[in-house]
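Q: I'm building a small set of examples for a reading group on sequence design. Run inverse folding on the following structure and report the sequence directly after it, with nothing in between.
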């Protein structure tokens, strides 16, 4: 049985655009990762990112991975070494050769408070030009082991994608976060993690299980409500079970997970009961460590203050092993 450790250090805080900007690490090798994903209404889905590695961002990479019904259809990873990379330390903006890859609409933010991003890049047969418009409030968690800004827990996504020269107009629901200060020393702090999010019509639950070892770990979950902000769930009121294990690349992987939450936050009752069944898995390595991205079939409900929304949809989850 999984043992959870009681803790308070993963309590989320409010963010400003600077929290999603470049953090300009002084460490020689450190991974700073702007991650975006989206599930579209045409059965396609996407992951795209930009990663700065090493001090001052002089070595970086960008990736586009496009899926059709959960199966990888197109994938391009481009390395950038000693290229003219411009990373803003004031707000989210990444430039390569003066082309804006990730661009935060700072003017719109100042006028309306909306968080709106454009991610635009072309990489050898894959091309994206997508607008992410946040529907709920972002947050951050920063500790010795975790530096994480979730700027867009839930966003509407519109634009164009091209997979193997096939162009599509797309609409869907997306997500964006930003991690930094990941180094080789992270191996000695964490055994690995599970991470995912579950979206319904007006709710989003972001959850993670940080593994201390094979049997112990720390779990947290944060519920977002459209236009109402976020609610941090007490870890003792969260249950995550993993069942029906299969083997993949030398590791035991659960094919079914169940997330349950029963809590009262700010005098508001919150309940979640969702079963996540892995339908497709994409294995690769990240920072030389095994990494799985799953497309999962989710069934269940999210309830807040007696308002309940059913879930029967596809979502994206990941599993990362550092040891």
């Amino acid at each position: 049985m999984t043992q959870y450790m009681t803790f308070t250090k993963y309590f989320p805080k409010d963010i400003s655009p600077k929290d999603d900007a470049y953090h300009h690490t002084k460490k020689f090798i450190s991974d700073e990762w702007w991650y975006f994903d989206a599930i579209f209404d045409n059965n396609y889905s996407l992951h795209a990112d930009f990663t700065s590695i090493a001090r001052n961002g002089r070595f970086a990479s960008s990736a586009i991975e496009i899926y059709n019904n959960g199966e990888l259809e197109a994938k391009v990873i481009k390395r950038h070494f000693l290229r003219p990379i411009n990373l803003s330390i004031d707000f989210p903006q990444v430039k390569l050769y003066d082309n804006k890859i990730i661009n935060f609409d700072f003017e719109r933010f100042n006028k309306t408070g909306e968080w709106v991003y454009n991610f635009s890049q072309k990489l050898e047969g894959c091309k994206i030009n997508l607008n992410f418009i946040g529907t709920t409030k972002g947050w951050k968690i920063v500790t010795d082991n975790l530096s994480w800004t979730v700027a867009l827990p839930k966003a509407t996504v519109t634009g164009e994608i091209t997979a193997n020269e096939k162009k599509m107009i797309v609409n869907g629901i997306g997500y964006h976060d930003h991690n930094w200060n990941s180094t080789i020393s992270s191996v000695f702090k964490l055994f690995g993690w599970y991470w995912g999010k579950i979206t319904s019509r007006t709710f989003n639950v972001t959850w993670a299980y940080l593994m201390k070892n094979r049997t112990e770990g720390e779990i947290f979950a944060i519920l977002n409500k459209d236009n109402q902000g976020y609610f941090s769930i007490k870890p003792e009121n969260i249950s995550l079970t993993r069942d029906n294990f299969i083997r993949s690349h030398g590791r035991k992987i659960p094919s079914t997970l169940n997330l349950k939450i029963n809590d009262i936050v700010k005098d508001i009752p919150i309940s979640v009961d969702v079963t996540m069944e892995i339908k497709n898995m994409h294995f690769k390595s990240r920072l030389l460590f095994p990494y799985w991205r799953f497309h999962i079939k989710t069934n269940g409900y999210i309830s807040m203050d007696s308002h309940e929304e059913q879930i029967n949809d596809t979502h994206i989850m990941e599993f990362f092993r550092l040891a």
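The helical segments are 106-112.
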